[in-house]
Specification:
There is one protein chain. With about 250 residues, the chain is an alpha/beta fold. The chain has one domain: NAD(P)-binding Rossmann-like Domain (Rossmann fold), CATH 3.40.50.720. About 45% of the residues lie in helices and about 15% in strands. The protein contains 8 helices and 7 strands. Strands 3-2-1-4-5-6-7 form a 7-stranded parallel β-sheet, sandwiched between helices. Helix 4 links the parallel strand 4 and strand 5. Helix 3 runs parallel beside helix 4 and helix 4 runs parallel beside helix 6. The longest helix has 29 residues. The chain binds nicotinamide-adenine-dinucleotide.
Length: about 250
């Protein structure tokens, strides 16, 4: 018996990286999953075949999580095809490095839209049904940069700090109604998001990492399984940090 047996989960940004690792870990624990990502559906055959390998149901719903109508339609389709959504993982996100005094308002708006508005929208459309059933888990992927700030990443850091504050505030609203809300703040994880970093940045950052290396997406996924399962029944509004010791709170 898996820890998430027969539970339906939506994972935004699950086409690759950390979201995909979470989706793979969820099906291994018996969940059925819907991947909501903006990547073209045409490239998702391999992903879906991996997710369905153990007999679990998996669907892909191409969605731009910044667009309200698309998010609403995505949630409706998942409920129709897979059933009531018990777990939402808000993972979709983007990164970018730019100094604040050179940042355009368009860059600011895009970052906040993808990384924070999407968390509001996706949560907004699954939460009423969770409250009605008196059961659900919402897990949002923040970042350690939302805790400590990142150089040339004021907009990213602000969006991720917003995700962590969103988590705490919502947890105060819904925890007595059976819905648990928590966040994950990963450290540097080797995904496509990190591929634009320079060698100079990597070398310097590695010297700062207590564990002496960057993380892998599969090292974040167990934290999501924990927060999605009853093992975390007393965790409310928390931010857990798979970060190699880069941030110690
Ligand atoms: N990689 C890291 O070092 C790191 C560290 C801390 C936090 N995070 C966070 O983890 C999450 C996943 O990042 P990752 O490293 O796996 O990056 P990634 O770039 O590999 O994956 C991000 C996914 O989000 C999707 N996405 C982006 N914009 C979208 C939109 N508007 N609508 C729908 N989907 C969209 C992309 O298509 C992609 O599949 C992000 O929120 C990121 O900020 C990453």
């Amino acid at each position: 018996m898996g820890k998430l047996e027969n539970q339906v989960a939506i994972i935004t940004g699950g086409a690759r990286g950390i979201g995909r690792a979470i989706a793979e870990a969820f099906v291994a624990e018996g969940a059925d999953v819907a991947i909501a990502d903006q990547a073209p559906e045409s490239g998702t055959a391999e992903l879906l075949s991996v997710l369905r390998k153990g007999g679990r149901r998996a669907i892909y719903v191409q969605t731009d999580v910044t667009k309200e109508a698309e998010v609403k339609a995505m949630v409706e389709r998942v409920e129709k095809e897979l059933g009531p959504v018990e777990i939402l993982v808000n993972d979709a996100g983007i990164g970018e490095q730019v100094l604040l005094h050179e940042m355009s308002s368009a860059q600011w708006d895009r970052m906040l839209n993808v990384n924070l508005r999407s968390v509001f929208l996706c949560t907004r459309y699954v939460l009423p049904q969770m409250l009605e059933r008196g059961s659900g888990k919402i897990i949002s992927i923040g970042s350690q940069l939302g805790q400590i700030g990142g150089h040339e990443m004021v907009h990213y850091s602000a969006s991720k700090g917003g995700v962590l504050a969103f988590t705490k505030a919502l947890a105060r609203e819904v925890s007595t109604k059976g819905v648990r809300v928590n966040a994950i703040a990963p450290g540097p994880i080797l995904t496509d998001m990190m591929k634009d970093e320079t060698d100079e940045w990597r070398d310097k950052k590695l010297t700062e990492m207590p564990i002496g290396r960057f993380g892998q997406a599969h090292e974040v996924a167990p934290t999501a399984v924990f927060l999605a399962s009853d093992d975390s029944s007393y965790y409310v509004g928390q931010t857990l940090g798979p970060n190699g010791g880069d941030v110690m709170l």
